[in-house]
């Protein structure tokens, strides 16, 4: 119980003083003053206690997304202040192993929901104080379960843009078992989504789910896929085809929907003996993967490396020939997997399950080989194709690598969003410097 009490401690809000010290700076770079340079100004919000920008967070994907969006805004001359609740959380809440702890039982999930509600009101008071002390052109919030911090912006007639990465009421109650009540989570989600001025969804299937489940008008939903900070992966060398084996790599949180168990079964069926797997990550599916390696006798072909830090991801990708992204159809097709862009930015071909995002990238000429999610035979055939065509796929990945930094960077994503917001009359149109590859 002591661990539970510590894990559910509500992060304290900072003392209200001047705006420059009121809020957090998640990317470690001094934020420009609000309104500096004649550009736009934004308040970035993330109310989830388990999502933040610290390097010890268990949720590396959301971390990359938060940092990427804020960097993109600043590169587009938007002055950004931020409130990132997860950066204040105890490691028991947000650090390695926290996801498993939060799913340990119904009592824990109920206590977590109570903590979320308390946190919601405390953080909203903090946000209200910030908005009363400084002017912002818009508020941008990453939606978190039971959180609606941007309501304080609506009260003050400041445009509220709400980023939706998943229908968390469904994900948290069914796939992650992180909430005690689907009904209450869905009511809170509907209340937040209904009040925002603009909803930003990371994929078209997710936008359709938002419209169909919550009856949100389609014209209030804008689709903006995830992006990548390509400069992080510039040091990754091109893939070499000199080695005897094909090394397939995965980096990220270990969940059942990532289909890593399917990958191991496909490797077990491989008769060439030339396919090896390296998996870097931690999460609730880690223990089962360890057991599966034992059961299938794959110790000489599969490495489970555990969690890597964000700084260690480029070095890991430098050690593999192909990146794996096997999201399961039943839960992952509405995602916009960050790892796919990161693999491509590192010059790695990608073996991925077939869904809207991967089909689109393959259609644009990027180096993706697609298999039907859940089909071990099709995945095995994909592994064989990657082995047989490793030279041509490596060349394709190298040839299209620069395009990732130019066409799919976070700055490019933010620029598109700002133009859309200006067209809708949510912000004024501003002159911005052109982007170059890698920004």
Automatic annotation (TrEMBL):
The keyword Transferase applies. Coiled coil: none annotated. Residues 66-232 form the Glycosyltransferase subfamily 4-like N-terminal domain. Keywords: Glycosyltransferase, Transferase. GO terms for molecular function: glycosyltransferase activity. SUPFAM superfamilies: UDP-Glycosyltransferase/glycogen phosphorylase. This is Glycosyltransferase involved in cell wall bisynthesis. InterPro entries: Glyco_trans_4-like_N.
């Amino acid at each position: 119980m002591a661990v539970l009490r510590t894990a559910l401690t509500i992060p304290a809000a900072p003392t209200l003083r001047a705006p420059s010290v009121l809020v957090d700076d998640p990317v470690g770079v001094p934020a420009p003053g609000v309104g500096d340079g004649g550009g736009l100004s934004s308040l970035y919000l993330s109310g989830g206690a388990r999502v933040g920008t610290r390097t010890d967070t268990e949720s590396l994907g959301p971390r990359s997304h938060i940092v990427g969006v804020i960097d993109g805004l600043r590169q587009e001359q938007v002055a950004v202040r931020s409130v990132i609740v997860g950066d204040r959380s105890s490691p028991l809440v947000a650090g390695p192993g926290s996801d498993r702890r939060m799913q340990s039982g119904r009592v824990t999930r109920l206590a977590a929901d109570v903590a979320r509600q308390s946190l919601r009101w405390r953080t909203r008071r903090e946000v209200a104080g910030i908005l009363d002390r400084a002017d912002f052109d818009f508020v941008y919030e990453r939606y978190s379960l039971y959180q609606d911090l941007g309501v304080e912006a609506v009260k003050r007639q400041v445009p509220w843009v709400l980023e939706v990465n998943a229908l968390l009421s469904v994900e948290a109650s069914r796939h992650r078992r992180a909430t005690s009540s689907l009904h209450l989570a869905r009511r809170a989600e509907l209340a937040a989504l209904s009040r925002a001025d603009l909803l930003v969804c990371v994929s078209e299937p997710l936008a359709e789910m938002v419209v169909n489940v919550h009856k949100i008008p389609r014209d209030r939903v804008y689709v903006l896929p995830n992006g990548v900070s390509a400069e992080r992966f510039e040091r990754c060398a091109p893939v070499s085809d000199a080695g005897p084996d094909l090394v397939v790599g995965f980096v990220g949180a270990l969940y059942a929907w990532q289909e890593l168990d399917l990958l191991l079964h496909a490797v077990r069926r491989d008769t060439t003996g030339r396919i090896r797997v390296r998996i870097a990550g931690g999460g609730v599916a880690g223990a089962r993967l360890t057991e599966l390696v034992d059961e299938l006798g794959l110790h000489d072909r599969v490495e489970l490396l555990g969690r890597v830090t964000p700084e260690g991801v480029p070095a890991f990708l430098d050690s593999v020939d192909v990146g794996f992204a096997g999201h399961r159809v039943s839960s992952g097709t509405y995602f916009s997997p960050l790892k796919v862009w990161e693999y491509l930015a590192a010059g790695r071909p990608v073996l991925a399950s077939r869904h809207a995002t991967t089909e689109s990238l393959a259609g644009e000429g990027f180096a993706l080989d697609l298999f039907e999610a859940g089909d071990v035979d099709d995945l095995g055939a994909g592994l064989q194709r990657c082995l047989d065509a490793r030279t041509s796929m490596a060349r394709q990945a190298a040839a299209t690598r620069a395009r990732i930094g130019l066409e799919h960077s976070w700055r490019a994503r933010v620029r598109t969003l700002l133009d859309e917001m200006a067209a809708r009359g949510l912000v004024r149109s501003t002159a911005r410097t052109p982007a170059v590859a890698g920004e």
